[in-house]
Amino acid sequence: MSREDFNYDSIHVSDIVARTLISVNPNTTVFQVAKMMEQGGVGAVIVKDNENPVGIITDRDFATKIIANNLSSNTPVEKTMSSPLVTINHDATISSAAEMMTFKKIRKLAVSENGNIVGIITSTDLVTQLAK
Question: Which domains does the chain have, with CATH numbers?
Answer without folding.
Answer: 9-131 (3.10.580.10)
